[in-house]
Write a structure and sequence with these properties.
- With 413 residues, the protein is an alpha/beta fold.
- The chain has 3 domains: 122 residues, no CATH class; 63 residues, Immunoglobulin-like; 193 residues, Rossmann fold, CATH 3.40.50.150.
- Helices cover 31% and strands 22% of the residues.
- Strands 10-9-8-11-14-16-15 form a 7-stranded mixed beta sheet. Strands 1-2-3-4-5 form a 5-stranded mixed beta sheet, covered by helices on one side.
- Helix 7 packs parallel to helix 8 and helix 10 packs parallel to helix 11.
- The longest helix is centred in the N-terminal third of the chain and has 16 residues.
- The two termini are 48 Å apart.
Length: 413
């Protein structure tokens, strides 16, 4: 489903608005004219009858609705702003004219008392997709799957934590591609013709997206919060030397390198390194801003320790299980603690931060807190630090949260 400002209402066919109730004289006493345009866009056939029942229309075609005190609410500045922001084919072209505020929800639910509250959520989703067509959004989840917006395209991917019923079943049939089968053993079924790769934007970053094996797309969107946190920690003083471990396609690398920090990017996968270099070129990074290392992470960190190399910031994003091209296996329950000990050993005398992500079933905020507190106090008892551990989540437009793992963020002081 390519996202554009089309006037199509096909996405709402399953969201029948029902019959329109009798006109309520005080319905629009606090409403904005953009709400009226919004409803007309969603339910043009249903609104025709209401327009016929209205005594008059203004010269622009907007509905004139009268409050109990007889004031012509339609004639106000906001109405004219909304009209000016409409294109000739009734498409919406500004965030203001399509904005849905809390009071708007109440008014529209009065107009469609049976099902409109559900339709509002879908409308907000589609508006978000149209206005933010180069970004990522979690649209819906349930039955062990996610429905996501990746730029101009909608994808369905399996996710064992996506429990419960999907809230917007009408949207799922519009997906451009669906990953079918178990992780690593499935394939992508394309419902529309997709480019080999495309781009999404996150803040000032640009990242390549493609349908990769193992259900991946090249970006873990829950990491955006970590990117922003690390950039904030690095904005106070001189450029930092940063070690990004299990760095994948380099979202964190791009974020920190773009701010002028010297990043060592380490991953055992050659395709991931190539992809990260493409992202670096897309973000116009200097060829010398990133040191690219294709190696087994524990092996590389052990060598850096022997060399006496030090870093101001370290990021670890290890999988629960994996293996390097050389055949070495990684098991987080066995290998994480020794790796963390080596990482603490190569921190500089004035470190800035350390970030650890976790995806194993046994990982909890409390287990990460105990692990990191114990290792830091043992290896560097004089080092002062603040530690935050929490569950990582993605959030839908309607406020539902999907758990994606655990993060621990250490701010040294």
């Amino acid at each position: 489903m390519r996202v554009s400002y089309s006037g199509s209402t096909s996405a709402f066919q399953a969201e029948d608005a029902g019959s329109i109730p009798a006109t309520r004289s005080n319905l629009y006493s606090r409403s904005h004219i953009n709400d009226i345009f919004f409803v007309r866009h969603l339910f043009p056939d249903a609104l025709c009858e209401m327009e016929k029942r209205n005594d008059s229309q203004d010269e622009h075609g907007g509905i004139i609705c009268k409050a109990e005190n007889g004031e012509n609410i339609g004639n106000n500045v906001q109405r004219h702003k909304a009209i000016e922001n409409r294109t000739d084919d009734c498409c919406f072209c500004s965030e203001w004219s399509f904005a849905m505020k809390e009071e708007s929800h109440c008014n529209l639910c009065l107009l469609f008392p049976r099902k409109f509250a559900h339709a509002v959520s879908i409308a907000k989703i589609l508006y978000s997709m149209a206005v933010q067509k180069n970004t990522y959004n979690l649209l819906d989840f349930g039955h062990g799957k996610r429905l996501e917006q990746w730029g101009e395209y909608m994808l369905v991917r399996p996710d064992p934590t996506a429990a419960g019923e999907p809230l917007h079943p009408a949207l799922w049939s519009k997906a451009d591609a669906v990953y079918e089968g178990e992780k690593g053993k499935g394939t992508w079924r394309k419902n529309t013709e997709l480019p080999e790769q495309w781009m999404i934007a996150v803040d000032d970053l640009h990242l390549r997206v493609r349908l990769a094996p193992y259900k991946h797309t090249g970006v873990f969107p829950e990491q955006v919060e970590n990117w922003r946190w690390a950039r904030a920690r690095g904005s106070a003083g001189k450029p930092l030397t940063v070690l990004n471990l299990f760095a994948y396609t380099g979202g964190m690398t791009m974020a920190l390198a773009k701010d002028g920090h010297a990043v060592t990017h380490v991953d055992a996968s050659k395709p991931a390194i190539v992809w990260a270099k493409e992202n670096a070129e897309l973000n116009q990074l200097s060829p010398t801003s990133v040191r690219w290392i294709m190696d087994d992470v524990p092996t590389f960190v052990a060598r850096e320790k022997k060399r006496g190399k030090q870093y101001d910031g370290i990021i670890l994003d290890p999988p629960a299980y994996g293996h390097s091209p050389s055949g070495k296996t990684w098991r987080v329950e066995r290998d994480l603690a020794p790796l963390l000990e080596d990482c603490i050993a190569i921190l500089s005398s004035q470190p800035a931060f350390l970030i650890l992500n976790g995806y194993a079933q046994a990982d909890t905020p409390d287990s990460f807190r105990r692990l990191l507190t114990g290792i830091i106090k043992t290896k560097n008892p004089r080092q002062k630090f603040d530690l935050e551990t929490k569950e990582m989540n993605l959030e839908t437009e309607d406020g539902r949260k999907l758990s994606t793992g655990i993060v621990a963020r250490v701010a040294f002081r």
